[in-house]
Design goal:
The chain has 170 residues and is mainly α. It has helices at residues 2-53, 59-106, 111-141.
Amino acid sequence: MAVPEMDHIVSIADVIRLAVAPVFLLSGIAAMLNVLTNRLTRIVDRARHLEKEFAAAAPGRIETLRASLGRLARRARLVSWGISLCTSSAILISIVVVVLFIDSLTGTNFSAIIALLFIVAMAALTLGLVCFLREISLATRHLRIGEPDPEHSPPAVQVVGTGSNRHADS
């Protein structure tokens, strides 16, 4: 009976070898999810900062704030979709690994199901990356590096008592 047990161990070892590639893919998706959640955090922080500016904003600045908040909301939705799609992809890949082991242990041929799950997982990952690319595109389209326009700048803070009011006698 030692020979059939050895065949079974070899079979499990083969499944483990097959499962290694999806596990590496899961690591890559986890890194992508980290990037996406960091971007979402930055977008939310920026939106909260802009929302606080409304109370003291000049009339010309209010429209700029509304436009900026609209863009941030759109970017947040894209990142949220990216997170959902990448997470779905990771779940599907995890199911692929489980089904690989079930296939091996039961001797049932689940190759069509495994292939379909993997294809759907790759489609979800691809769509998640497209959302990420679109969000990056929106973020850089309105990127402005340099001095802001005076009418779109937040009001200057005037510090009282720090200046010198001495006049020179001529």
